[in-house]
Automatic annotation (TrEMBL):
It comes from candidate division WWE3 bacterium CG08_land_8_20_14_0_20_41_10. Residues 31-174 form the SUF system FeS cluster assembly SufBD core domain. InterPro entries: Fe-S_cluster_assembly_SufBD, SUF_FeS_clus_asmbl_SufBD_core, SUF_FeS_clus_asmbl_SufBD_sf. Belongs to the iron-sulfur cluster assembly SufBD family. This is SUF system FeS cluster assembly SufBD core domain-containing protein.
């Protein structure tokens, strides 16, 4: 699969229409301002696409991301995995849209958004949207927001790690599940 890194910079909306199977990795540098939107058109039959994003947000910073996947051709496939970590005062918003048009019979689309809260005074908004016009597709979505598992923290601490080291290790493992994370 071809690999592409998506960096918004000062651009608010990026539109792509891959012509070959592609993995997109969305990167945030912490200086982005405003809502960022990635629109992916899957208009080549049997096209496969994966979108991965792992981010960390702390006090005074906000991630506001929209992904829109539009299946236009038959038998297209898209897997979207978004993972975020919110520290004290961190704010995130994610809207994942999957549109499967009537012409996209046999398509498969999966959307997953997971946010780990490790601080206080955080806010997360998640909105998965499915618009399915075809009748022979597989489509799913999942969205969760939660804290670090106390049992996992205890286990690592009982093996000699400090609380901070244990939490950092669990955060790294969580972000690595976005498959592209460099953390």
């Amino acid at each position: 699969m071809k690999k592409e890194i998506i960096q918004f910079g000062t651009t608010n909306t990026l539109t792509v229409s891959p012509t070959e199977d592609t993995v997109f990795s969305i990167k945030f540098n912490g200086n982005e301002r405003g809502q960022k939107s990635l629109i992916v058109y899957l208009d080549v039959p049997n096209m496969s696409c994966k979108i991965y994003c792992g981010y960390k947000v702390s006090l005074g910073n906000t991630i506001d991301l929209i992904t829109t996947i539009i299946h236009k051709a038959p038998a297209t496939n898209c897997d979207t995995v978004i993972r975020g970590v919110l520290y004290n005062g961190g704010v995130s918003s994610y809207q994942g849209k999957v549109i499967i048009e009537k012409t996209a019979q046999g398509s498969v689309s999966r959307l997953e958004d997971r946010v780990l809260v490790v601080g206080e005074g955080t806010h997360n908004h998640a909105e998965p949207v499915m618009q399915i016009e075809a009748n022979n597709v597989v489509a799913s979505h999942a969205s969760t927001t939660g804290r670090v598992d106390g049992g996992q923290l205890y286990y690592l601490q009982s093996r000699g790690l400090s609380r901070e080291e244990s939490q950092d290790l669990l955060i790294d493992a969580f972000l690595c599940n976005s498959e592209q994370s460099e953390y």
